[in-house]
Write a structure and sequence with these properties.
Number of domains of chain A: 1
Largest interface: A-B, 45 and 25 residues
Structural class of chain B: mainly alpha
Low-confidence stretches of chain B: none
Distance between the termini of chain A: 69 Å
CATH class of chain A: Mainly Beta
Number of strands of chain B: 0
Radius of gyration of chain A: 20 Å
Strand content of chain B: under 5%
CATH topology of chain A: Sortase, Chain: A
Structural class of chain A: alpha+beta
Order of helices and strands of chain B: HH
Oligomer: heterodimer
Distance between the termini of chain B: 40 Å
Radius of gyration of chain B: 20 Å
Order of helices and strands of chain A: HEEHEEEEEEH
Strand order of the largest sheet of chain A: 1-2-3-4-7-8-6-5
Largest sheet of chain B: none
Mean pLDDT of chain A: 90
Shape of chain B: rod-shaped
Number of helices of chain B: 2
Low-confidence stretches of chain A: none
Strand content of chain A: 25-35%
CATH superfamily of chain A: Sortase
Chain lengths: 211, 60
């Protein structure tokens, strides 16, 4: 009897240690995967942008399509945005909702990213205030959006991703950006949504000169 | 359980300790590099995508 009880106790302690290790993995271990993927995507994107433009160029799912910078998060904050918001896409970095507007276009450029795991690109989006800049680099242009508002919504609130955010079916006239991430942190209960509007658009320094 | 493993480790004293550390390392590595990467997407608690109520949420 004593042997059984002791064995059970040992099992419970072991399970506890394994769970703690798993939490460590979720929060930090997954970031290493994202970093490796980002390095790869960054190289691919830099190479693609250096080459002359192909007329048939298309963004394919899971591939890099733009870069995002947020001055408030520091100079080092730079992620390649991948096309797609499937779990596999978002493990690589921030993802662009397929079908939503492209950067700088009329409509809504919608990007989602992890907030606590997989390098947590959107960990600090809760700190964004009205007027803060979100910079999107594409092959030829640099688009600066300014934060105009934020909302906390239910996970099924797809209307925030519509061309006119929150007004599905309306015809867009403005160039908007929308960021979505989980809320509260470490939870899937709700979504934190940041809205922004295009405030400036300049030609980008050619990739060859930049890197 | 652990007492049983300890009794069945080869060698004595320091050698057993070495085997123990090796075994712990192997188990942790297997969990970290094989089990957790497979398990994590299934248990993911960090969802940031808005989806119609009928479809399962993506990552985020």
């Amino acid at each position: 009897m004593r042997v059984i009880i002791r064995g059970l106790g040992e099992l419970c302690i072991t399970a506890g240690v394994v769970v703690l290790l798993f939490v460590t993995y979720s929060l930090w271990g997954t970031g290493r995967y994202t970093q490796a993927q980002q390095d790869k995507l960054d190289d691919e994107l830099s190479r693609a942008w250096r080459e002359p433009r192909v007329t048939t160029e298309k963004v394919s799912l899971g591939k890099g399509m733009a870069r995002i910078h947020v001055p408030r998060f520091g100079k080092k904050f730079s992620y390649v945005i991948v096309e797609g918001v499937e779990p596999a896409d978002l493990r690589k970095g921030p993802g662009h909702y397929p079908g939503s507007a492209l950067p700088g276009a009329v409509g809504n450029f919608v990007v989602s990213a992890h907030r606590t795991t997989y390098s947590a690109p959107f960990n600090r989006v809760g700190e964004l205030k009205d007027g803060d800049e979100i910079v999107i680099d594409t092959r030829t242009r640099k688009y600066t959006y300014q934060v105009t508002g934020r909302r906390i919504v239910n996970p099924s609130a797809v209307e925030v991703t519509s061309p006119v955010p929150g007004r599905p079916g309306r015809k867009p006239k403005q160039r908007m950006i929308t960021l979505t991430t989980c809320h509260p942190k470490y939870s899937a209960a709700q979504r934190l949504v940041i809205f922004g509007k295009l405030s400036a658009e300049v030609p980008r320094v050619p990739a060859t000169a930049q890197r | 359980m652990y007492a049983w493993i300890w009794r069945h480790l080869p060698g004595s004293g320091p050698k057993k300790l070495m085997w123990t550390m090796l075994a712990v390392l192997v188990v942790v590595a297997a969990l970290w590099y094989v089990v957790f990467p497979w398990l994590e997407p299934k248990l993911q608690f960090d969802h940031g995508v808005v989806t119609p109520a009928s479809t399962p949420p993506g990552g985020g």
